[in-house]
Recover the amino acids of this structure.
C-alpha cells in the first residue's frame, strides 16, 4: 500500500490517540482505530522536545502529533511498541522538518 493509499484509508477511519504521562519523560500512547487498539511506550528527552518545538507545546502534544505523522505513513500495527521519539527520524527522514513546519517553527 502506498503512503497516499494509507492516507486515504486514514481519512475514512476514525482514529483516537490518547497520550498519558507515565513519569520521567515516558508516555503511554493508545491508538484506537477501526475497532482495534495498539499501545506504545514513547520516551521524550527534554532537549529533543525543545529542539522540535522550541517549548511552544507540551511534550504530550508533541507525542500526539508525532503519532498523527506516523499514522499518515503506516498502520498503527507497524508502529514500534516502545521507542524514543528521535527513532522516528531514522525511519522517516522528513519527520523533524515536518514537525517543525506543522508546529510553526
Amino acid at each position: 500500500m502506498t503512503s497516499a493509499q494509507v492516507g486515504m484509508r486514514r481519512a475514512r477511519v476514525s482514529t483516537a490517540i490518547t497520550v498519558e504521562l507515565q513519569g520521567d519523560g515516558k508516555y503511554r500512547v493508545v491508538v484506537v482505530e477501526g475497532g482495534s487498539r495498539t499501545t506504545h511506550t514513547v520516551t521524550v528527552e527534554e532537549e529533543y522536545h525543545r529542539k522540535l518545538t522550541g517549548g511552544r507545546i507540551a511534550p504530550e502534544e508533541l507525542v500526539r502529533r508525532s503519532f498523527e505523522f506516523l499514522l499518515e505513513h503506516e498502520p498503527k500495527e507497524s508502529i514500534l511498541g516502545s521507542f524514543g521519539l528521535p527513532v522516528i527520524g531514522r525511519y522517516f527522514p522528513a519527520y523533524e522538518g515536518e514537525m517543525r513546519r506543522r508546529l510553526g517553527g
In short: Residues 59-73 form the longest helix (15 residues).
